[in-house]
Write a structure and sequence with these properties.
With 240 residues, the protein is an all-alpha fold. The chain is 65% helix and 0% strand. It has 2 domains: 102 residues, no CATH class; 96 residues, no CATH class.
């Protein structure tokens, strides 16, 4: 009987291990597929850009007077945005790993802002003018999200004001707002509905009911890791 019990436990453990391995393989394949698509679309955008020397690593001001002109009515850029929040870690890693700091990096920064529904320029004390400057501001924004969400929820502000403040923090707040919702703070529901409806290009935020949010919470956990990794990165920088 004990031998059979041990065999059952070993079989269950092996099955669980295989399922976990399969999950990570599929996860990596999905990431690789998204990254390939992002690379393809970025190259298509860059194919439309040039300066007198044919360089694509010149400062953004060497091209159109407004770098955002490269993203206006751009089908490749729209394709990147439609990838949604799953593209955020990949775009951030590309910006971080790049040794260049030109137009391509600026366009990546614009994509991150659009997907994350965050506008750092109006709120940054140091206005960013390059992709690398944006990356610094972006990481600082991410690392403070948990504290900012808690501060807004625990404030005495009216619900409309709280909703506005939470929405301004952007899509990466979703898992942290969901935490507050689970704690009984139902007043945060309009904010999270608006953020998710905007990310899915839905016109009716009420589509995303509490039942839908509960069933789909796991889909947004990647955003939590994005926020927490930014805080860890800042700690590493401060130790140096």
């Amino acid at each position: 009987m004990k031998k059979r019990y041990r065999l059952i436990i070993m079989s269950v453990a092996c099955a669980a291990s295989l399922l976990l391995t399969a999950f990570f393989v599929l996860y990596r394949q999905a990431d690789a597929s998204i990254e390939r698509l992002i690379d393809q679309k970025l190259e298509q955008i860059m194919d439309t850009s040039h300066d007198n020397n044919g360089s694509t690593n010149a400062p953004p001001t060497a091209f159109y007077s407004n770098p955002y002109d490269y993203t206006q009515n751009s089908a490749p850029f729209s394709h990147i945005l439609k990838l949604g929040h799953a593209a955020l870690p990949i775009l951030q890693d590309k910006l971080s790993a790049s040794e260049e700091n030109g137009l391509k990096q600026y366009i990546i920064a614009i994509a991150i802002e659009n997907i994350a529904q965050v506008k750092l320029k109006p709120t940054s004390s140091a206005n960013w003018d390059t992709g690398k400057q944006f990356l610094k501001e972006w990481r600082q924004h991410l690392q403070h999200i948990p504290q900012h969400v808690a501060a807004v929820v625990n404030s005495k502000a009216h619900q409309e004001q709280q909703t506005t403040q939470l929405i301004q923090l952007g899509l990466p707040t979703v898992p942290f707002i969901l935490d507050q919702l689970k704690l009984g703070h139902k007043e945060v529901l309009p904010a999270i509905q608006q953020l998710i409806s905007s990310s899915k290009l839905e016109t009716d935020p009420s589509t995303f009911s509490m039942e839908w949010l509960a069933a789909n919470q796991a889909n947004y956990e990647e955003l939590r890791q994005l926020v927490l990794s930014a805080a860890q990165k800042q700690e590493q920088i401060e130790r140096k």
